[in-house]
Amino acid sequence: MKLFSKESLIINSVRLVTYFIVVVVGYLLFDIVVKGAPTISWSFLTDLPRKSGAEGGIYPAIIGTVYLVLGAITVALPLGMASAIYLSEYAMRGKLNQGIRLAIITLAGVPSIVFGLFGLGLFVLFFGFGASILAGSLTLSFMILPTIIVSSEEALQAVPMGLREASLALGATQWQTVYKSVLPFALPGMFTGSILGIGRAAGETAPILLTVAAFFLPRLPSSIFDQVMALPYHLYVLATQHPDTEKVLPMQYGTALVLIIIVVFFNLTAIILRNHFRKKIQW
Amino acid sequence: MNTWRDKAIHTILVGAASTSILIVLLIFVFLGKEAFPFIWEVGFGELFRTKWIPVSFKAEIFGLIPLISGSLLVTGFATLIMIPFGVFGAIYIAELGTETERSFLKPFIEILAGIPSVVIGFFGLVVLSPIIKSAFGLNTGLTGLTGAILLAFMAIPTVITVSEDAIQSVPRAYREASLALGASKLQTIFRVIVPAALPGIIAAIMLGMGRVIGETMAVLMVTGNAAKLTLNPFDSVRTMTATIAAEMGEVAFGSHHYQALFWVGIFLLIMTFGLNVVAQKVLRKYQMR
């Protein structure tokens, strides 16, 4: 009996530790939602900022983030899907495959600020794009590439071998097999990975700090060589660089809430879609 | 039939897949290209001095030691915090929780993983740092410890997810054999499953540490950013990542300060690269992925 009570004591402590994480995350979300909600209004979302962000809205920052994310996904999605198809369907093993895998692991671990330095050195200075949407999008696309490759590969691996074998046995070429028998089943999973990538790209600050983000730029960009404001950087500026951080606290909470909504929306969509497809396709 | 088309597609796919390798090489080349002139213009040894005074009227000093120690201090304390939460969290989710609990705990952890670091930093600034300040009676809540707590929370999802995979990969027979011998649930978990999954759990902690060292925005916002050599977590510290983020915007391109910041980036890259490669080797060796 004594053993039993000791056992349940330990189990309950482990449970407590686990739920503590939930409570902290819950409190963070609650705090930002409750204090951010009063700031959010139609004009907050659609007005230009005034007085270095103390008044007005965050429209240019939202648009800037949308442009950056669209640019990043346009580059990273085709590249990542093609990489995953090669790794999973064409070269299951071999030197090149090993090299690519090591590269993906390395890329996934590169700190975001180092991506920023790299983007600064390559795109901003060497290619002469300047601090621009183009430089920022490309930097972000390289950063989310591993996410897209890994989840796309997982989706491809989930398609049973039998489908490929049947197609090849009927005389289809490798590409016909991939295109007609594998991709249709893997595509939903592959897009899930891209949604996760979008969420990550939308929230990153460090890479765009050095390659694109404008401190305060109350207008919309006119070309891909323009600088833009971006939501995460705008939050950083309001919270730490603004001369009167106390006074703009509501603006900070409002910006944080909009950013959280965007990022959590993409992440939740990805999680729900993934669970849906895992359940639906049963081989 | 169709062979030319298949060949063309094959070539395109090889090209696409190889870009990952190209990007990694380009990262090394371009960090090196901006950083290396420092060696002959100032001297490699200058990077190992114990003071970081990049802007000065007399003599600038580009010693990376205080920055490296700042990163190690924050990472060390963050690791101490994330180990119990990450490992117990993974044990609970994998072994103890009910199916219903799993179905909401897992998405919750994934949401934590998705919260942008600037938002975590903001939360640390307005909520956590006042708590730290009053709890320990400090002059400021912007300390190494504040950063460590935030970073631990950012790394917990990584530790939980990878540890849970490791625990799940322990063969069912181990569990059944232990229970059949009359061991209790807890004895089975702590004497059989966790030891069997230990390499994976250690790898998970290393991946978490890699994430902590490389994290920028949260530490930039809450650690106070004083570049001094200290082991006291209640001191303000400046990490390597925060230094790059804070100073890169103000340096003249090509100056010694600029080159030194790229050296900070190279050291960061080497540290995270080492942690990641070793962790992945462990995971692959024990087939926990």
Can you describe this structure in just a few lines?
The complex is a heterodimer of chains A (283) and B (289). Chain A is mainly α. In chain A, 76% of the residues lie in helices and 1% in strands.
**Which parts of chain A are unreliable, with pLDDT below 50 for 5 consecutive residues or more?**
none
How many domain units of chain B? 1
Strand order of the largest sheet of chain A: 1-2
State the total count of DSSP E strands of chain A.
2
What class, by secondary structure content of chain A? mainly alpha
Q: Could you give the distance between the termini of chain A? A: 47 Å
The biggest beta sheet of chain B is recorded as: 2 strands, antiparallel
CATH topology of the largest domain in chain A: MetI-like fold
Secondary-structure-based class of chain B equals mainly alpha
- Largest interface by Cβ-Cβ < 8 Å: A-B, 86 and 84 residues
Task: Determine the mean pLDDT of chain B.
Answer: 88
The best one-word shape of chain A is globular
Please identify the top-level CATH class of the largest domain in chain A.
Answer: Mainly Alpha
CATH superfamily of the largest domain in chain A: MetI-like
Tell me the CATH architecture of the largest domain in chain A. Answer: Orthogonal Bundle
Give the C-level CATH assignment of chain B.
Mainly Alpha
Question: How many separate helices of chain A?
Answer: 11
As for the CATH topology of chain B, it is MetI-like fold
Describe the protein.
The complex is a heterodimer of chains A (283) and B (289). By secondary structure, chain A is mostly helical. Chain A has 2 domains: 2-38; 58-280, MetI-like (MetI-like fold, Orthogonal Bundle), CATH 1.10.3720. Helix content of chain A is 76%, strand content 1%. Chain A has a two-stranded antiparallel ribbon. Chain A starts with a helix and ends with a helix. The mean pLDDT of chain A is 87. Chain B has 289 residues and is mostly helical. Chain B has one domain (52-285): Orthogonal Bundle (MetI-like fold). In chain B, strands 1-2 form a two-stranded antiparallel ribbon. The radius of gyration of chain B is 23 Å and the shape is globular. The model of chain B has no long low-confidence stretch (mean pLDDT 88). The interface between A and B is large, with 86 and 84 residues.
